[in-house]
Design a protein that fits this description.
Elements: E1 4-7, H1 16-30, H2 38-42, H3 49-57, H4 66-83, H5 96-105, E2 109-113, H6 119-126, E3 134-136, H7 149-158, E4 165-169, H8 172-180, E5 184-187, E6 199-200, H9 204-213
Parallel strand pairs: 1-2, 1-4, 2-3, 4-5, 5-6
Helix pairs in contact: 1-4, 5-9
Bound molecules: 1,6-di-O-phosphono-beta-D-glucopyranose and magnesium ion.
Magnesium ion binds next to loops.
Amino acid sequence: MIKAVIFDLDGVLVTTDELHFAAWKALAERLGISGFTRADNARQRGVSRMASLEVVLEKSDREFSDKEKSALAEEKNDIYVKSLSALSRADVLPGVFEFIDYIKSKGIKAAVGSASKNTPLILEKTGLADKFDAVSCGLDTTRSKPDPEVFLIAAQKLGIDPCGCAVIEDSAAGIEAAKTGGMYAVAVGAAEHDPKADISIGSLESLYKALKIFA
Ligand code: B16
Ligand code: MG
């Protein structure tokens, strides 16, 4: 029986996936890397900042030292964080507040499981901060998705066994992490049709509407 839902952040709760794309694209252009596309960005979903940087740098014909890579990751994060200044409740994806209230009315707990180190800032700016029983993010982890660590920490903070948790994810890395962690995996958005997911649906809003039919 599902006792908790662990929500991914970027691309599931909030539209920040688009802001990540814009910031990486700006960095790529600054480095003279042309042709950084949405297909490249799809490989950055759910994975850490440094792993995302590698996706950009593999399109370059020069090598970068570890020190240069750290500076580039920081440069991208500065661009990204600046773009978060305009973030508000309007950037929360459709159906999110309703879905969280719905599961809570059924006694099911809600947590966040995100690779992003900017999770606290994003939750605060979007009015989502007080909606969760636990938050696990890139600030808590040493390994990133597809390692299950971020979801296992969320389950631990909730005090619920992994097998009682359902993860909602928009990335292949996140779906794999949920399954490796022994959790139920729901694929939405960009991860729709992921063969590793237990169920797959276009959006959280569609999932909420489907649940309400049987409520
Ligand atoms: P940051 P999620 C992930 O968030 C993003 O999908 C991924 O593109 C990003 O690289 C990662 O967070 C790290 O984010 O640079 O803000 O620490 O989808 O796991 O909520
Ligand atoms: Mg995501």
